Amino acid sequence: MMEHEKVNILLVDDQPAKLLAYEVILKELGENLVSAASGREALEYLLKNEVAVILVDVCMPELDGFELAAMIREHPRFQKTAMIFISAIQVSDLDRLRGYEMGAVDYVPVPVVPEVLRAKIRVFAELYRKTRQLERFNAELEDRVRARTAELEQSNARLLESEQRRSLAIAAGRMGSWDWDWVNGDWMWDEGQYRICGVDPESFVVTLASLQALLHPDDIGELRKAMAQFNKGARSYETEFRIKRPDGEVRWCVGTAAATVDRGGRVVRVSGVTIDITERKRAEERQNLLAREVDHRAKNALALAQSIVRLTRGENVKAYIRAVEGRINALARVHTVLSLSSWQGAEIGRLVDEELAPYSTGDQIAFGGSEIQLQPATAQTLALALHELVTNSCKYGALSTVSGRISIRWEIEADVLRMVWEERDGPVVEKPASRGFGTRSVITSIESQLGGQAEFDWRSEGLICRLSVPLVQDVSTRPFRQNFVLKGSGS
Question: What is the pLDDT of residues 137-150, one digit of tens each?
Fold first, then answer.
């Protein structure tokens, strides 16, 4: 509020003539005069507007001046608004005291002396104006202080964020920096350098001897080589080396150093950066190992596929193709199971499920046993054996009829997997005069490739095949589905 801005002066009286007289007296003040003919009208105006001074007649119907003042003071916005009472009757000291208690700041008797009324109104109007100006200035000052404080906080936050990013970059990059005074032998390391070397900055004293003690014995020669190069005039040097931390851990690092020389060309200082590349080295080793492993497995898979093609027999071309495709698909299924475990092994329950799922109808097939983590080679061979058994059952055994049933159960005995394949409720079984290719394939794969044993019991009510497979490295034998699980077509 500027000094020339008008303020509102509320005139409250139930007599229009008096209101007109007040307006005439106060007009020369140049303020905004507002008239209210009752206390209720005055309250309605106050609720919507700011008022500098209220001139109130004490004697009014409905709400007298005292009651109106009490109601005005109850409103938080008007607790400090100046109120002047006008009384046409002689008031006692008790009435004056009551008025002051209600919030009056002054009394004006009737008849009103224009100069006195104008002077009093002018004082309180100016006081109101100055108070509002002071409040505005304080608010502006507080806004500026808050803005400046916010700027400082933002600046500090940016500095802190920048420092955190730098620290995170150093930590993420596993970097450290150092400085070596070539003349007097003083060293200076930053926090990253101490962290890479795995030493405590509070207790570790950096010297040439202590640095050599941290280097891997096979890489100490790199330090001597770098010093020799700088003595010969080299300005920079980069090499890979290993740090052997006090706890025994070995870390691979790459170091870059730059020399500072004097006017005579002699080295006076060497500064450098060390980067921990251990994870990169390990990744390279894993990649090389994986490449060799993939090569090895590819050769094994090709050899196995070659054996399948070479040894499979068929009455005609279609039968031959069907047999080869079936065995290749069996290998593909076990390959999927092994891939899910990153070729760490295959759970036998999952393996049996994958191999028998294509042939499951209704509740014809049930299986269960201890959970065993099979080695990849064992899983592949066992998958082919199961494929031959289920294929034979579809042609001649229990799965060739709707009523036929098959159960497969397995357990571990002294590091040997013992699996029993049992067929029942199928066609009458007769022992073959000679072993078919499927039977020979199962026996050959189990006995020759795994050093196990395969026994066939050709009962009339259904075939029983017992497989025994040594588990040299498979040690995981936690409980699996002890009760048989019925496999349906939706499995």
Answer: 888 888 888 888 88
- Neighbour-count burial of 39, counting CB atoms closer than 10 A to its CB (0-12 exposed, 13-18 middle, 19+ buried): buried
Report the C-alpha gap between 413 and 372 in whole angstroms.
12
At which residue do the structure tokens 């588990």 appear?
A: 471
Helix (H) or strand (E) holding 421: strand 416-424
What six digits make up the tokens of 88? Answer: 């046409």
Beta bridge partners of 36: 12
* Per-residue burial over 166-205, b = 16 or more CB atoms within 10 Å of its CB, e = otherwise: eeeebeeebbbebebebeeeeeebbebbbbbbbbeeeeee
Geometric angle at alpha carbon 438, from 436 and 441, rounded to 5°: 110
DSSP letters for 437-488? HHHHHHHHIIIIIHS-EEEEEEETTEEEEEEEEE-SS---------S-EEE-
425 neighbors 403 (Cβ within 8 angstroms): yes
Q: Where are the beta strands (DSSP E) in 185-230?
A: 187-189
Tens of pLDDT, residue by residue over 185-227, are 899 998 888 989 999 989 999 998 999 999 999 998 888 888 8
* pTM of structure: 0.37
- 8-138: in CATH 3.40.50.300: no
In angstroms, rounded to a whole number, what is the distance separating the alpha carbons of residues 464 and 486? 19
Please state which architecture CATH assigns to domain 174-276: 2-Layer Sandwich (3.30)
What are the structural domain ranges in the chain? 8-138, 174-276, 312-487
CATH 3.30.565.10 fits 312-487, yes or no: yes
Q: Which two tokens stand for residue 204?
A: 């570790």
Classified as helix, coil or strand, 209 is helix
User: How many alpha carbons lie under 13 Å from residue 314 in its C-beta half-sphere?
Assistant: 15
Integer angstrom CA distances of residue 133 from 34, 48, 176 = 22, 21, 60
pLDDT at 289 over 60: yes
